Amino acid sequence: MIESKTLTQFIIEEQRKISGATGEFTLLINDIATSCKAISDGVNHGALADVLGSAGSENVQGETQKKMDVLSNDIMLHVNGRNGHVAAMASEEMDEIAQIPDGVEYGKYLLVFDPLDGSSNMDVNVSVGTIFSVLRAPESMSSPTAEDFLQPGTEQVCAGYALYGPSTMMVLTTGNGVNGFTLDQDIGEFILTHPNMQIPEDTQEFAINMSNQRFWEPPVKRYIDECVQGVEGPRGKDFNMRWVASMVAEVHRILTRGGIFMYPIDEKLKSKGQGGKLRLMYEANPMSMIVEQAGGASTTGRERILDLKPEDIHQRVPVVLGSKNEVERVTRYHQE
Ligand code: AHM
Ligand code: MG
Asked: Which of 164, 194, 224 is a domain's end point?
């Protein structure tokens, strides 16, 4: 343990490389880590802490909120709002942006998050996670507006997720590679265990919700058809499939052993007037930054996700991300 590097140490070392850094960013990451430890504790206790099941409310997207969705959102707001490092926050679970409490100074950053992604998996004891994205607040910020958040993914200062699985992990990037930290429950610290994570360029594993197959667009149908045909098809090799229905678990698997993850636009989503299933600002953008920083690629099938100019905090987009050569193939099928 003496020789292991904690998340805080790691961020301080990164901060020293930036001349003029004030340490505010390091303190913000510390707050985010603290909130994820608190959420991890709730997730771990499950039924013992009476956090399973529905909260009996709906979020802005009309989805039923789980008890743990509400609790995780409260933890994120409380822990990150009180120390003067953020100017405002936005969350999957809130229609409007959250202003910081009265009496707290405005910080330099805007924090956007999905407090508990994949929460439908909570009740069945399958991995869930927290996804976050840090943006710069406009200079001399007072009372930020939703408009201030609508920056393309390329403007993210930091993107990361916490994965509450067999072990709790925090994976993040500040635009200088991707590093993974495992929570040592005994000492309550995230320890650097996965330095410089890299996604292999090739893969034989895809992740998509196959129950939507009949609604897919032709390029997606073609790509998956070819994978499923295996050695007998044009790809000449067999593919494996996974679908956890927790994007954090899916992206973590891809960072660990490669793969392609797709939640494409389809006829069912279009008929509901939605541009995709996943949300740009707190799911697609942070995950795209992480994936690109690890050598992978991320597109809507047609455009690079990080280049999109958000129109709304809760905007939805199609997502195709993971091993570079497979993502490029899917993008090519969309052009052909
Ligand atoms: P959530 O933020 O409401 O949990 O929804 C996002 C999740 C992703 O983690 C996952 O990839 C997807 O929804 C699963 O969708 P489906 O239930 O259609 O398979
Ligand atoms: Mg989500």
From this structure: 194
Alpha carbon distances (Å) from 103 to 28, 100, 109: 18, 9, 17
Query: What pTM was estimated for this model as a whole?
Result: 0.96
Atom of ligand 1 nearest to the CA of 263: 11
CB 190 within 8 A of CB 170: yes
pLDDT in tens, 111-161: 999 999 999 999 999 999 999 999 999 886 678 999 999 999 999 999 999
Q: Domain for residue 199, yes or no?
A: no
Q: Which of 85, 61, 59 is nearest to 72 (CA)?
A: 59
**pLDDT per position as a tens digit, 67-87:** 999 999 999 999 999 999 999
- Give the atom of ligand 1 at the shortest distance from the alpha carbon of 248: 9
Single residue among 194, 229, 261 that ends a domain in this structure: 194
Q: If you take atom 15 of ligand 1, which residue's CA is the nearest one?
A: 245
In this structure, the residues whose C-beta lies within 6 A of any atom of ligand 1 are 63, 92, 114, 117-119, 209, 245-247, 263
Q: Whose CA is nearest to atom 6 of ligand 1?
A: 118
| 56-70, 99-113, 182-196: segment of lowest average pLDDT | 56-70
The parent domain of residue 115 ranges over 7-194
Report yes or no on 35 lying in a domain: yes
Find how far residue 173's CA is from the centre of its chain. 11
Rounded to the nearest angstrom, the distance between the alpha carbon of 247 and the centre of ligand 1 is: 7
Number of structural domains (the chain) is 2
Q: Determine, yes or no, domain membership for 130.
A: yes
